[in-house]
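Weekly sync, protein design subgroup
Attendees: M.S., D.O., the rotation student, P.L. (late)

Item 1: inverse folding check
M.S. brought a backbone from last month's batch and wanted to see whether the design step gives back something sensible before we order anything. D.O. pointed out we never logged the input encoding, so this time it goes straight into the notes. Structure tokens as presented (136 positions):
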């Protein structure tokens, strides 16, 4: 039997879990490495990934609401994909800024990016397969 969960509650729980796991990971990396440059690099990567996740979520919700109100699905898809590529460009600019100008460690920035998406996958699998949640 599947338990039903509202998509807004699911997303809120997902965002909270990402925040908790990221905070723990940042704290542990500071305790182990004791170098603020690496920790700031990790925070920058986590921040970029979280902002991408947050804006993707909001854009998806807005496009779906517009389609429900009468926007053609083709225009909705075009709008969503256009914003996706703009977000990808903004991510590239931020990565360039953090690596070349601020001189943060690229490995730890990428580790932060990877960490958020890895957490998304693990938390979603846990909720959908092990807890048998159905998002409504």
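Designed sequence read out in the meeting:
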């Amino acid at each position: 039997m599947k338990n039903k969960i509202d998509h807004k509650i699911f997303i809120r729980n997902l965002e909270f879990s990402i925040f908790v796991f990221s905070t723990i990971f940042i704290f542990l990396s500071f305790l182990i490495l004791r170098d603020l440059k690496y920790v700031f690099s990790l925070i920058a990567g986590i921040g970029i990934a979280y902002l991408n996740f947050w804006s993707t979520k909001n854009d998806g919700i807005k496009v779906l609401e517009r389609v429900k109100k009468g926007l053609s699905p083709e225009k909705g898809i075009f709008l969503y994909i256009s914003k996706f590529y703009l977000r990808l460009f903004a991510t590239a600019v931020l990565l360039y800024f953090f690596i070349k100008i601020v001189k943060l460690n690229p490995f730890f920035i990428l580790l932060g990016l990877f960490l958020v998406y890895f957490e998304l996958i693990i938390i979603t699998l846990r909720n959908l397969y092990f807890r048998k949640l159905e998002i409504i």
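Discussion: The mean pLDDT is 88. The chain has one domain: 3-135.
Action: P.L. to compare against the previous round before Friday.
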